[in-house]
Design brief:
Blueprint (H helix, E strand, L loop, with lengths): L2 H7 L1 E5 L15 E7 L8 H10 L9 E6 L5 H20 L12 H21 L5
Antiparallel strand pairs: 1-2, 2-3
């Protein structure tokens, strides 16, 4: 992933936000909407695009656009920084290759401990019964 190229392909849009700000909310566009077209990106190669399509599928639209919004702050600039950080983090998490899990044996001590516990429980239950004469 070429971070600089990807960041130039991002489109920002400022819209009116709800929340803190009083009457100022009705006049100022402080909410920032980030949109990114995954398939037309030149900062990602084909393999990375396929991996992202699979990993962040729930965040993508049907046309493979990633849309993020931020209206946490009253400042448009801070919201833009927050949403950009969030965008980069999503891409990095989506491109991370997980190591395959190695199957391991159950340790011998754990098996023995389980069998001892079973025998103890069986003995306790056996002692509850009436004695045979």
């Amino acid at each position: 992933m070429n971070k600089e190229i990807v960041l130039t392909e991002v489109k920002y849009k400022a819209v009116r936000s709800s929340g803190a700000g009083g009457q100022n909310v009705n006049k100022v566009s402080s909410k920032v909407v980030l949109s990114f077209d995954l398939m037309d990106s030149k900062g990602l190669d084909e393999e990375e695009k396929e991996r992202l399509k699979a990993k962040i599928a729930s965040k993508l639209t049907q046309e493979f656009h990633l849309i993020l919004t931020c209206d946490e702050d009253r400042s448009q600039l801070k919201n833009k920084e927050i949403v950009t950080r969030r965008f980069i983090k999503i891409l990095q998490e989506g491109l991370k290759i997980e190591k395959p899990r190695k199957a391991t044996k159950i340790p011998k001590a754990a098996k023995e401990k389980r069998l001892v516990a079973k025998k103890t429980t069986a003995q306790i239950k056996e002692n509850r019964k009436k004695p045979k004469l």
